[in-house]
Description:
5-stranded parallel β-sheet, Rossmann fold
Amino acid sequence: xxxxxxxxxxxxxxxxxxxxxxxxxxxxxxxxxxxxxxxxxxxxxxxxxxxxxxxxxxxxxxxxxxxxxxxxxxxxxxxxxxxxxxxxxxxxxxxxxxxxxxxxxxxxxxxxxxxxxxxxxxxxxxxxxxxxxxxxxxxxxxxxxxxxxxxxxxxxxxxxxxxxxxxxxxxxxxxxxxxxxxxxxxxxxxxxxxxxxxxxxxxxxxxxxxxxxxxxxxxxxxxxxxxxxxxxxxxxxxxxxxxxxxxxxxxxxxxxxxxxxxxxxxxxxxxxxxxxxxxxxxxxxxxxxxxxxxxxxxxxxxxxxxxxxxxxxxxxxxxxxxxxxxxxxxxxxxxxxxxxxxxxxxxxxxxxxxxxxxxxxxxxxxxxxxxx
Length: 372
Ligand SMILES: Nc1ncnc2c1ncn2[C@@H]1O[C@H](COP(=O)(O)OP(=O)(O)OP(=O)(O)O)[C@@H](O)[C@H]1O
Ligand SMILES: [Mg+2]
Protein backbone atom coordinates (compact mmCIF):
# COMPACT_ATOMS: atom_id res chain seq x y z
CA UNK A 1 0.00 0.00 0.00
CA UNK A 2 2.81 2.43 0.87
CA UNK A 3 4.18 4.53 -1.96
CA UNK A 4 7.10 6.89 -1.75
CA UNK A 5 5.64 10.08 -3.16
CA UNK A 6 3.42 12.10 -0.90
CA UNK A 7 1.44 15.26 -1.34
CA UNK A 8 1.16 17.11 1.96
CA UNK A 9 -1.03 20.10 2.75
CA UNK A 10 0.42 22.49 5.33
CA UNK A 11 -2.05 24.90 6.91
CA UNK A 12 0.00 27.37 8.93
CA UNK A 13 -0.07 31.19 9.05
CA UNK A 14 3.69 31.53 9.60
CA UNK A 15 5.88 31.45 6.49
CA UNK A 16 8.95 30.56 8.57
CA UNK A 17 7.20 27.34 9.61
CA UNK A 18 6.47 26.53 5.98
CA UNK A 19 10.11 27.04 5.01
CA UNK A 20 11.31 24.96 7.98
CA UNK A 21 8.95 22.06 7.31
CA UNK A 22 9.64 22.10 3.58
CA UNK A 23 13.39 21.94 4.30
CA UNK A 24 12.94 19.14 6.84
CA UNK A 25 10.93 17.07 4.36
CA UNK A 26 13.51 17.76 1.66
CA UNK A 27 16.03 16.02 3.92
CA UNK A 28 14.03 12.78 3.85
CA UNK A 29 15.83 10.55 1.41
CA UNK A 30 13.47 7.56 1.36
CA UNK A 31 10.48 9.47 -0.05
CA UNK A 32 9.54 12.54 -2.04
CA UNK A 33 7.27 15.12 -0.48
CA UNK A 34 5.38 17.77 -2.34
CA UNK A 35 4.01 20.51 -0.09
CA UNK A 36 1.06 22.79 -0.72
CA UNK A 37 1.00 25.67 1.72
CA UNK A 38 -2.17 27.46 2.83
CA UNK A 39 -1.86 30.27 5.38
CA UNK A 40 -5.51 30.85 6.35
CA UNK A 41 -8.38 28.92 7.91
CA UNK A 42 -10.66 29.37 4.91
CA UNK A 43 -7.90 28.65 2.36
CA UNK A 44 -7.01 25.47 4.26
CA UNK A 45 -10.58 24.23 4.43
CA UNK A 46 -11.09 24.95 0.72
CA UNK A 47 -7.92 23.08 -0.23
CA UNK A 48 -8.96 20.09 1.92
CA UNK A 49 -12.30 20.06 0.20
CA UNK A 50 -11.14 20.49 -3.37
CA UNK A 51 -7.82 18.71 -3.72
CA UNK A 52 -6.36 15.30 -3.02
CA UNK A 53 -3.66 15.02 -0.35
CA UNK A 54 -2.01 12.15 1.44
CA UNK A 55 -1.89 14.00 4.75
CA UNK A 56 -2.36 17.43 6.29
CA UNK A 57 -0.16 19.28 8.79
CA UNK A 58 -2.30 21.73 10.71
CA UNK A 59 -1.14 24.62 12.88
CA UNK A 60 -2.82 25.20 16.23
CA UNK A 61 -2.96 29.01 15.84
CA UNK A 62 -4.66 30.16 12.65
CA UNK A 63 -5.41 33.88 12.90
CA UNK A 64 -8.78 34.43 14.51
CA UNK A 65 -9.71 30.71 14.48
CA UNK A 66 -7.88 27.74 15.95
CA UNK A 67 -6.64 24.72 14.08
CA UNK A 68 -8.82 22.66 16.42
CA UNK A 69 -11.90 24.34 14.95
CA UNK A 70 -10.70 23.44 11.46
CA UNK A 71 -10.02 19.90 12.59
CA UNK A 72 -13.58 19.60 13.89
CA UNK A 73 -14.92 21.08 10.65
CA UNK A 74 -12.87 18.63 8.59
CA UNK A 75 -14.26 15.69 10.55
CA UNK A 76 -17.81 17.00 10.29
CA UNK A 77 -17.36 16.93 6.51
CA UNK A 78 -16.05 13.38 6.78
CA UNK A 79 -12.62 14.09 5.25
CA UNK A 80 -10.56 10.98 5.58
CA UNK A 81 -7.08 12.53 5.43
CA UNK A 82 -4.77 11.93 8.30
CA UNK A 83 -4.35 15.30 10.02
CA UNK A 84 -1.27 15.94 12.14
CA UNK A 85 -1.51 18.75 14.59
CA UNK A 86 1.40 21.24 14.97
CA UNK A 87 1.76 23.46 17.98
CA UNK A 88 4.24 25.92 19.39
CA UNK A 89 4.12 24.56 22.88
CA UNK A 90 3.96 21.19 24.52
CA UNK A 91 0.59 21.06 26.25
CA UNK A 92 -0.87 17.76 27.41
CA UNK A 93 -4.46 19.04 27.47
CA UNK A 94 -4.19 20.34 23.93
CA UNK A 95 -2.70 17.02 22.88
CA UNK A 96 -5.69 15.14 24.34
CA UNK A 97 -8.15 17.61 22.80
CA UNK A 98 -6.52 17.17 19.36
CA UNK A 99 -6.67 13.41 19.69
CA UNK A 100 -10.33 13.53 20.66
CA UNK A 101 -11.11 15.74 17.68
CA UNK A 102 -9.65 13.09 15.39
CA UNK A 103 -6.05 14.22 14.87
CA UNK A 104 -3.70 11.41 13.90
CA UNK A 105 -0.75 12.85 15.81
CA UNK A 106 0.44 15.89 17.71
CA UNK A 107 3.88 17.44 17.15
CA UNK A 108 5.64 20.34 18.86
CA UNK A 109 7.22 22.60 16.24
CA UNK A 110 10.38 23.45 18.21
CA UNK A 111 11.11 19.73 18.58
CA UNK A 112 10.64 18.83 14.94
CA UNK A 113 13.35 16.83 13.25
CA UNK A 114 13.07 15.28 9.83
CA UNK A 115 12.99 11.65 11.09
CA UNK A 116 10.25 12.54 13.58
CA UNK A 117 8.18 14.36 10.97
CA UNK A 118 8.67 11.64 8.35
CA UNK A 119 7.74 8.91 10.82
CA UNK A 120 4.63 10.72 12.01
CA UNK A 121 3.43 11.26 8.43
CA UNK A 122 4.12 7.65 7.47
CA UNK A 123 2.34 6.20 10.52
CA UNK A 124 -0.62 8.57 10.15
CA UNK A 125 -1.12 7.62 6.49
CA UNK A 126 -0.96 3.92 7.35
CA UNK A 127 -3.41 4.41 10.21
CA UNK A 128 -5.88 6.30 7.98
CA UNK A 129 -5.58 3.52 5.38
CA UNK A 130 -6.30 0.85 8.03
CA UNK A 131 -9.31 2.80 9.31
CA UNK A 132 -10.69 2.99 5.75
CA UNK A 133 -10.19 -0.78 5.33
CA UNK A 134 -12.02 -1.43 8.61
CA UNK A 135 -14.88 0.81 7.45
CA UNK A 136 -15.09 -1.11 4.15
CA UNK A 137 -15.14 -4.46 5.97
CA UNK A 138 -17.86 -3.15 8.30
CA UNK A 139 -19.96 -2.07 5.30
CA UNK A 140 -19.48 -5.52 3.73
CA UNK A 141 -20.55 -7.23 6.94
CA UNK A 142 -23.62 -5.03 7.13
CA UNK A 143 -24.49 -5.97 3.55
CA UNK A 144 -24.05 -9.68 4.38
CA UNK A 145 -26.30 -9.19 7.38
CA UNK A 146 -28.98 -7.60 5.20
CA UNK A 147 -28.64 -10.43 2.72
CA UNK A 148 -29.01 -12.99 5.49
CA UNK A 149 -32.34 -11.48 6.59
CA UNK A 150 -33.39 -11.26 2.96
CA UNK A 151 -32.50 -14.96 2.70
CA UNK A 152 -34.83 -15.88 5.54
CA UNK A 153 -37.59 -13.83 3.98
CA UNK A 154 -36.97 -15.30 0.53
CA UNK A 155 -36.93 -18.89 1.71
CA UNK A 156 -40.19 -18.55 3.63
CA UNK A 157 -41.67 -16.68 0.66
CA UNK A 158 -40.51 -19.40 -1.72
CA UNK A 159 -41.99 -22.02 0.56
CA UNK A 160 -45.32 -20.24 1.05
CA UNK A 161 -45.96 -19.29 -2.55
CA UNK A 162 -44.22 -22.19 -4.27
CA UNK A 163 -47.11 -24.64 -3.82
CA UNK A 164 -50.00 -22.37 -4.88
CA UNK A 165 -47.91 -21.12 -7.82
CA UNK A 166 -47.27 -24.70 -8.94
CA UNK A 167 -50.99 -25.44 -8.78
CA UNK A 168 -51.93 -22.30 -10.73
CA UNK A 169 -49.31 -23.13 -13.33
CA UNK A 170 -50.41 -26.71 -13.91
CA UNK A 171 -54.09 -25.64 -14.06
CA UNK A 172 -53.25 -22.93 -16.56
CA UNK A 173 -51.34 -25.44 -18.69
CA UNK A 174 -54.28 -27.79 -18.54
CA UNK A 175 -56.71 -25.03 -19.50
CA UNK A 176 -54.36 -24.06 -22.34
CA UNK A 177 -54.61 -27.59 -23.75
CA UNK A 178 -58.40 -27.69 -23.29
CA UNK A 179 -58.77 -24.37 -25.03
CA UNK A 180 -57.45 -25.81 -28.27
CA UNK A 181 -60.17 -24.16 -30.36
CA UNK A 182 -60.35 -20.92 -28.45
CA UNK A 183 -57.35 -18.88 -29.63
CA UNK A 184 -57.97 -15.94 -27.27
CA UNK A 185 -58.25 -18.13 -24.17
CA UNK A 186 -55.21 -20.12 -25.26
CA UNK A 187 -53.17 -16.93 -25.56
CA UNK A 188 -54.32 -15.77 -22.12
CA UNK A 189 -53.28 -19.09 -20.59
CA UNK A 190 -49.86 -18.86 -22.23
CA UNK A 191 -49.45 -15.39 -20.72
CA UNK A 192 -50.42 -16.71 -17.28
CA UNK A 193 -47.83 -19.51 -17.51
CA UNK A 194 -45.10 -17.09 -18.69
CA UNK A 195 -45.86 -14.67 -15.87
CA UNK A 196 -45.84 -17.45 -13.27
CA UNK A 197 -42.43 -18.53 -14.57
CA UNK A 198 -41.27 -14.94 -14.10
CA UNK A 199 -42.37 -14.95 -10.47
CA UNK A 200 -40.71 -18.32 -9.88
CA UNK A 201 -37.49 -16.99 -11.42
CA UNK A 202 -37.61 -13.93 -9.19
CA UNK A 203 -38.09 -15.99 -6.04
CA UNK A 204 -35.26 -18.31 -7.09
CA UNK A 205 -33.02 -15.30 -7.72
CA UNK A 206 -33.79 -14.02 -4.22
CA UNK A 207 -32.90 -17.42 -2.82
CA UNK A 208 -29.57 -17.54 -4.67
CA UNK A 209 -28.84 -13.95 -3.84
CA UNK A 210 -29.34 -14.42 -0.18
CA UNK A 211 -27.99 -17.87 0.41
CA UNK A 212 -24.62 -16.30 1.45
CA UNK A 213 -21.90 -18.40 3.01
CA UNK A 214 -20.38 -21.36 1.24
CA UNK A 215 -22.42 -23.63 -0.98
CA UNK A 216 -22.64 -27.24 0.09
CA UNK A 217 -23.34 -28.51 -3.40
CA UNK A 218 -20.11 -27.64 -5.17
CA UNK A 219 -19.02 -30.18 -7.73
CA UNK A 220 -16.63 -30.23 -10.64
CA UNK A 221 -18.33 -28.62 -13.60
CA UNK A 222 -17.29 -28.87 -17.21
CA UNK A 223 -17.44 -25.31 -18.52
CA UNK A 224 -17.78 -26.47 -22.14
CA UNK A 225 -21.06 -28.24 -21.33
CA UNK A 226 -22.49 -25.26 -19.44
CA UNK A 227 -21.50 -22.99 -22.31
CA UNK A 228 -23.17 -25.24 -24.83
CA UNK A 229 -26.48 -24.82 -22.98
CA UNK A 230 -26.13 -21.09 -22.40
CA UNK A 231 -24.99 -20.27 -25.93
CA UNK A 232 -27.72 -22.53 -27.30
CA UNK A 233 -30.22 -20.27 -25.57
CA UNK A 234 -28.62 -17.03 -26.71
CA UNK A 235 -27.07 -17.61 -30.11
CA UNK A 236 -30.37 -16.92 -31.83
CA UNK A 237 -30.70 -13.62 -29.95
CA UNK A 238 -27.16 -12.59 -30.95
CA UNK A 239 -27.95 -13.39 -34.58
CA UNK A 240 -31.28 -11.58 -34.52
CA UNK A 241 -29.65 -8.45 -33.09
CA UNK A 242 -26.72 -8.78 -35.46
CA UNK A 243 -24.20 -8.83 -32.64
CA UNK A 244 -20.96 -10.73 -33.14
CA UNK A 245 -20.15 -13.17 -30.35
CA UNK A 246 -16.41 -13.81 -30.24
CA UNK A 247 -15.35 -16.91 -28.37
CA UNK A 248 -11.81 -17.01 -27.05
CA UNK A 249 -12.19 -20.21 -25.12
CA UNK A 250 -9.54 -22.63 -23.95
CA UNK A 251 -11.44 -25.94 -24.18
CA UNK A 252 -11.63 -28.49 -21.38
CA UNK A 253 -11.72 -26.04 -18.46
CA UNK A 254 -13.31 -27.42 -15.31
CA UNK A 255 -14.32 -25.42 -12.26
CA UNK A 256 -15.59 -25.93 -8.72
CA UNK A 257 -19.19 -24.78 -9.07
CA UNK A 258 -22.76 -25.94 -9.70
CA UNK A 259 -24.07 -26.38 -13.23
CA UNK A 260 -27.43 -24.58 -13.04
CA UNK A 261 -26.30 -21.48 -11.14
CA UNK A 262 -23.12 -21.19 -13.25
CA UNK A 263 -25.29 -21.13 -16.38
CA UNK A 264 -27.44 -18.48 -14.71
CA UNK A 265 -24.38 -16.26 -14.02
CA UNK A 266 -23.22 -16.54 -17.64
CA UNK A 267 -26.73 -15.82 -18.91
CA UNK A 268 -27.00 -12.74 -16.67
CA UNK A 269 -23.69 -11.35 -17.92
CA UNK A 270 -24.37 -12.09 -21.59
CA UNK A 271 -27.90 -10.65 -21.47
CA UNK A 272 -26.59 -7.52 -19.74
CA UNK A 273 -24.00 -7.24 -22.53
CA UNK A 274 -26.73 -7.48 -25.19
CA UNK A 275 -28.76 -4.77 -23.44
CA UNK A 276 -25.70 -2.52 -23.12
CA UNK A 277 -25.09 -2.78 -26.88
CA UNK A 278 -28.78 -2.07 -27.57
CA UNK A 279 -28.45 1.11 -25.50
CA UNK A 280 -25.29 2.18 -27.35
CA UNK A 281 -27.05 1.63 -30.67
CA UNK A 282 -29.85 3.97 -29.65
CA UNK A 283 -27.21 6.72 -29.54
CA UNK A 284 -25.25 5.65 -32.61
CA UNK A 285 -26.68 3.11 -35.04
CA UNK A 286 -23.23 2.32 -36.41
CA UNK A 287 -21.87 1.41 -32.99
CA UNK A 288 -19.48 -1.57 -32.91
CA UNK A 289 -21.53 -4.61 -31.88
CA UNK A 290 -19.32 -7.18 -30.29
CA UNK A 291 -19.34 -9.38 -27.24
CA UNK A 292 -16.25 -11.38 -26.35
CA UNK A 293 -16.46 -14.39 -24.10
CA UNK A 294 -13.05 -15.39 -22.86
CA UNK A 295 -12.18 -18.45 -20.81
CA UNK A 296 -8.64 -19.23 -19.75
CA UNK A 297 -6.85 -21.11 -16.99
CA UNK A 298 -4.62 -19.12 -14.62
CA UNK A 299 -2.44 -21.15 -12.24
CA UNK A 300 -5.09 -22.93 -10.13
CA UNK A 301 -8.03 -20.81 -11.20
CA UNK A 302 -10.16 -20.37 -14.29
CA UNK A 303 -10.85 -16.83 -15.47
CA UNK A 304 -14.05 -16.11 -17.34
CA UNK A 305 -14.74 -12.69 -18.80
CA UNK A 306 -17.56 -11.14 -20.80
CA UNK A 307 -16.60 -7.97 -22.66
CA UNK A 308 -19.05 -5.82 -24.57
CA UNK A 309 -18.77 -2.75 -26.73
CA UNK A 310 -21.89 -1.33 -25.10
CA UNK A 311 -22.81 1.88 -23.42
CA UNK A 312 -20.40 1.52 -20.47
CA UNK A 313 -21.05 2.23 -16.81
CA UNK A 314 -20.33 5.47 -14.94
CA UNK A 315 -17.95 5.39 -11.95
CA UNK A 316 -20.89 6.16 -9.70
CA UNK A 317 -23.01 3.28 -11.00
CA UNK A 318 -20.05 0.91 -10.81
CA UNK A 319 -20.24 1.30 -7.01
CA UNK A 320 -23.92 0.27 -7.03
CA UNK A 321 -24.00 -2.53 -9.63
CA UNK A 322 -23.92 -5.49 -7.30
CA UNK A 323 -26.50 -4.13 -4.87
CA UNK A 324 -29.84 -5.94 -4.95
CA UNK A 325 -32.50 -4.11 -6.96
CA UNK A 326 -30.07 -1.61 -8.53
CA UNK A 327 -31.19 -1.15 -12.12
CA UNK A 328 -31.14 1.60 -14.72
CA UNK A 329 -33.65 -0.26 -16.86
CA UNK A 330 -37.28 0.78 -17.22
CA UNK A 331 -39.92 -0.74 -15.00
CA UNK A 332 -40.64 -4.26 -16.22
CA UNK A 333 -37.33 -4.43 -18.13
CA UNK A 334 -35.01 -5.29 -15.26
CA UNK A 335 -35.31 -6.28 -11.64
CA UNK A 336 -31.76 -5.32 -10.70
CA UNK A 337 -31.12 -8.77 -9.31
CA UNK A 338 -28.95 -10.22 -12.09
CA UNK A 339 -25.59 -9.03 -10.79
CA UNK A 340 -26.48 -9.22 -7.10
CA UNK A 341 -27.49 -12.84 -7.63
CA UNK A 342 -24.37 -13.57 -9.69
CA UNK A 343 -22.18 -12.14 -6.93
CA UNK A 344 -23.97 -14.26 -4.30
CA UNK A 345 -23.53 -17.38 -6.44
CA UNK A 346 -19.86 -16.81 -7.31
CA UNK A 347 -19.01 -15.96 -3.68
CA UNK A 348 -20.70 -19.13 -2.46
CA UNK A 349 -18.07 -21.11 -4.40
CA UNK A 350 -15.27 -18.96 -2.99
CA UNK A 351 -14.88 -17.12 -6.31
CA UNK A 352 -14.67 -13.41 -7.07
CA UNK A 353 -16.29 -11.18 -9.65
CA UNK A 354 -15.23 -7.71 -10.76
CA UNK A 355 -16.06 -5.08 -13.34
CA UNK A 356 -14.09 -2.60 -15.39
CA UNK A 357 -15.86 -0.18 -17.65
CA UNK A 358 -15.50 3.00 -19.65
CA UNK A 359 -18.52 5.14 -20.48
CA UNK A 360 -19.24 5.03 -24.19
CA UNK A 361 -16.63 2.31 -24.83
CA UNK A 362 -17.81 -0.84 -23.10
CA UNK A 363 -17.58 -3.09 -20.12
CA UNK A 364 -15.84 -6.24 -18.95
CA UNK A 365 -17.13 -8.47 -16.18
CA UNK A 366 -14.58 -11.00 -14.97
CA UNK A 367 -15.02 -13.85 -12.57
CA UNK A 368 -12.50 -16.25 -11.14
CA UNK A 369 -13.28 -19.75 -9.93
CA UNK A 370 -11.15 -22.52 -8.50
CA UNK A 371 -10.11 -25.12 -11.08
CA UNK A 372 -12.01 -28.36 -10.68
N1 LIG B 1 -22.56 -4.90 -19.48
C1 LIG B 1 -23.15 -3.83 -18.96
N2 LIG B 1 -23.03 -2.62 -19.55
C2 LIG B 1 -23.62 -1.52 -19.05
N3 LIG B 1 -24.37 -1.52 -17.92
C3 LIG B 1 -24.51 -2.68 -17.28
C4 LIG B 1 -23.94 -3.89 -17.75
N4 LIG B 1 -24.26 -4.88 -16.89
C5 LIG B 1 -25.02 -4.31 -15.93
N5 LIG B 1 -25.18 -3.01 -16.16
C6 LIG B 1 -25.90 -2.05 -15.32
O1 LIG B 1 -26.10 -2.64 -14.06
C7 LIG B 1 -27.49 -2.64 -13.72
C8 LIG B 1 -27.76 -3.87 -12.89
O2 LIG B 1 -27.58 -5.05 -13.64
P1 LIG B 1 -28.33 -6.36 -13.20
O3 LIG B 1 -28.04 -7.43 -14.16
O4 LIG B 1 -28.07 -6.61 -11.76
O5 LIG B 1 -29.87 -5.94 -13.27
P2 LIG B 1 -30.73 -5.63 -14.57
O6 LIG B 1 -30.03 -6.12 -15.79
O7 LIG B 1 -31.09 -4.18 -14.54
O8 LIG B 1 -32.04 -6.47 -14.28
P3 LIG B 1 -32.14 -8.10 -14.26
O9 LIG B 1 -32.52 -8.40 -12.85
O10 LIG B 1 -33.20 -8.40 -15.25
O11 LIG B 1 -30.80 -8.65 -14.61
C9 LIG B 1 -28.19 -2.59 -15.05
O12 LIG B 1 -29.50 -2.03 -14.94
C10 LIG B 1 -27.27 -1.71 -15.87
O13 LIG B 1 -27.48 -0.35 -15.57
MG1 LIG C 1 -29.27 -8.11 -15.81
